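Are you able to produce any protein sequence you like plus the matching backbone structure tokens because I've never seen that pairing?
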Amino acid sequence: MINRTLKAPAQAIRRFVENRYGMFIHFGLYSVYGRHEWAMCYERIPKAQYRQVAKRFKPREGCAREWVKLAKSVGMRYACLTTRHCEGYSLFDSPANPFNAVRTGPRRDLVREFVEACRENGIRPCLYYSVADWGDPGFVAGPKDDPKGWKRFIGVVHAELKTLMTNYGEIDYLFYDACPPDPKVWGVAELNAEIRHLQPNILISDRCCLNEDVASAEQHTMSSPGKPWECCLTMNESWGYNSTDEDWKTPRELVKTLLICIHNDGNLLLNVGPQADGTVPARSVRDLKAAWRWISRNKELVYGTKGNPFNYADQKLSAYRGHTAYVPLHFYHGPDTVVAGIGNKVRSARVLGAGQAVRFRQKNGRVSLIGLPARMPDKPFTVIALELDGPPHGIPHPLLGQGRAKYD
């Protein structure tokens, strides 16, 4: 009998949190259209017409390896591939769904290529799976209007997920998407129990509408929910390749989002949408490398830290490890910079990315960083590392209670 009470082991949870930064990869037939991943739905493309594009889906040999090498080169510790999006086209083979990349298009198992590339490069492999399938009449009709069609549709979902959990070795994380809001109508509690039996170390996202291991914030950050969480974020406004989307976030915005995630004990899963041949757009590569130049100088803050050591509302991001606190200055005021609310005695201060000591004065929980230069020494964010006399603790703000002003 399958044990429904199983949860991810503490070691797997700790590893996920310490990794902090990952690559999301949206790739499928929508990449051929080049009008982002919802083209079939938004443009109401008939199923038969949409499926014809599989003949033109010919990603280059080795493209999955290129994605993973890129992820590793810019400091990402895990990667998550869309094994099937809402279009219903799977990047792996399954007897339950012949509309897949092994039987059409490239006639290759792209999931296997991805997972093997992850293991070759020391990247933790994670898999995305969309339950919804716009091309399945049972899904479109729903469980009430077509109970037989719905049962068949759910059978495909269960079979495909069991294939993913059986044929590709250890998988770190299952990222659900587009799930029916009522868990009972697709048997997800029983399905997740089987998945945990097949993958004892896996983490499962709570996007399946159950209280599972990882909370997810799509295109936004959140305060710590008391369990692992991640922000999944696009670099422009599209998940899948969109040839005309020029609304790119700056490297500074990407780094700031990562810092907010760290402050709130979350991860950042940053998306790329490769073109149909598997090439990652040049702008994505450029901005990932720009963010990495900062991350590489500030690794001590990024990986393996815990968030918000002072628990105060003084408009500062922070993280810590042991007796060291890290404060990224998203507002930089040179020698007038003050970090307030610190309950510890500060023994020393330094600019993390530049490796230089900083003179300071401390009085009543206010630390004045008088040794900072007028111009920011490390862009886009200068991080101050504070060596404390013990585990960090904060001083409650006299004017703010639980983050709310006591008066207007």
User: Anything to note?
Assistant: The first helix runs from residue 10 to 19. Confidence is low (pLDDT under 50) at residues 403-408. The CA atoms of residues 158 and 191 lie 7 Å apart. The first strand starts at residue 21 and ends at 25.
